[in-house]
Records
---
Amino acid sequence: MEQLHERAQNKTRVMEFILLGFPGSHYVQMGIFMSFLTIYILTVFGNVTIVILVITNSRFHTPMYFFLGNLSFLEIWYTMTIMPKTLSVLLGDSRSISFTGCILQIFFNYSLACSEFFMLSVMAYDRYLAICYPLQYSTLMDIKLCCKLAAVSWLLGFLAMTTPTVLMSKLSFCGPNMINHFYCHIDSWISLSCSDTHASEIAMFIVAIVVILISFLITFLSYAYIISTILHIASAKGRLKAFSTCSSHLTVVVIWFGSAIILYIKPSKRASVEMTKVVNIMNTIVTPMLNPFIYTLRNKDVKEALKHSLHWKQRKTCIR
């Protein structure tokens, strides 16, 4: 009886974990820290700029920019779920994270990732309506439908992660408590559990398959119709103009889906840890930074609005 009681205590004694981050000397850690900090600042600045432009500039009060503003707002929070703690780990200030902290980080990080999949598919559907049904577009994609599609994207993302998170919150950890990652990545965290992780792994695998498959099918079918419609446009100028309206979104989709498929469509405990870290850097840190720059550099309206805003600020400063 005493042995059973002792084993039960041992099973739940680990309630704090240590994030190992990246291997290397102090100088290597500082180099990674400065790189990540720069990316973090650019990510927040770029996405906040897009959100402000979409809200304040009347020319961006259209469905395409409404969804872009939602995507940028989502990216800000997606990055914030891991970057502050990752930067702290790289500095060596605080590598520890509690069991509750890990669960919350996993839930919000992966929920926002799922929401991004749905948001990108909604944006693809929006481009499909704009290019394939230009005359009916303003009627089909009104503000009510925009709000509903955005709300559903956010809601489905968080609902998708509810069951896996509940299952993972019931896992026991006996030690060791070293997470070989720069944040609470599910694979690295689950591998430390001393209880049966089969249900958690299956639930997460199903969520990954369903979320990626549904969003990919919507995106793929939307672009199949878009490309077909563009190819039937008589003039080369018309084809180029039609393609330019969705080229930025298509670039983001390729980067996001490509890195996500490598990460999630695999048996959870068999992947190389270092490869997973590298792909995670692309997926969770680099991509949120690239999005605003991709949309800005490829979008004349956004570039003109930014130039106008900067010119107005300079003029205001000169008057003072």
Note: Residues 1-12 have pLDDT under 50 and may be disordered.
---
Amino acid sequence: MAKQLGELVKKAGDYAGTAANTGIALATAGIEQLTTLAVYRCPCVTSKELGCNITQIGSPKCVHFLNLGYGLSFIIAPAIALFVFGMISNPKMWKLLTGCNHKQRGKKPTWTYFLWTLTEVSAAAMIAPVTWVAIALLDGRFYACAVTAFPYDVEHALATYPTCEAVAAAKTFYTSDSFNDNRSFSQFLGWVVISGCLIVGLFLFGYTQCSSPLTYYHAKYYRLYKGSEEAEFDDEMSKKAQVDAESNVRKFMEERREKKEWDRISTVYEFHRDRNNLALYSNLHSWVLEEDAKSKKALLGDTAEEPGEEPNGNGGTTMSTTPL
């Protein structure tokens, strides 16, 4: 049983990317349905507000701006928000942009690399917004509300509700025939979007696989290595940061300090480097290095080197001379 469970976990790991994308799509569909049930209510519009009557339903002027904006906002605005979230939550985006303007000459990404990475990140971020648009079109109410002049069954002899006030007071809404027709067309558009995205996605995925310089198992090892290296790097950075921070805080707290020293470490900090181009991570870190330099000067005289130039055995200075 344990062996079978291990094999199942291993197989699931092979399809981790597909599982993650499926999870994103399902979560997006669930959020869309909850949004529709909880907050969506298409506005009721009268012929007086539109300036036309029921016989002019097909005319473009019979589409109310409020309905158009309300319906489209539920399709477009969440899709944009999901796309932006997908972009900013992708580590590749920040690896590409962070410190880009200050990298050494020859280390900056080329425009070709920059655009390719941006395209890759954008493609991954499109999963959630495309799912939202497709599900919204399949539901049909957003699109129908946007393009239907009279979304509710009002203002005629056999109307379910005589006025929009009656519609607002009702717990169940009876929509007009034109609304239902537009909803059916929206569902058709939804299936077109899904089919088109699947075909385009399959083509692009096949093209990228064919263009890969690695074979199947080599590419699989490459993905596994990248994931393991990232996890190991994060773990080691966390350990080292804690050790260095503990050392610096312990040095400051080992005796009572004057107010000017408390003021020094309590001010707002902006990242900068010392004269040797080594990183200073906080006001406390900078203070520790200066104290180390003063102690060294007292022991060695005026020939002592400036802060951050050489380790002297304690946590603060060791931190300053690290490649970090």
Note: The CA atoms of residues 144 and 181 lie 8 Å apart.
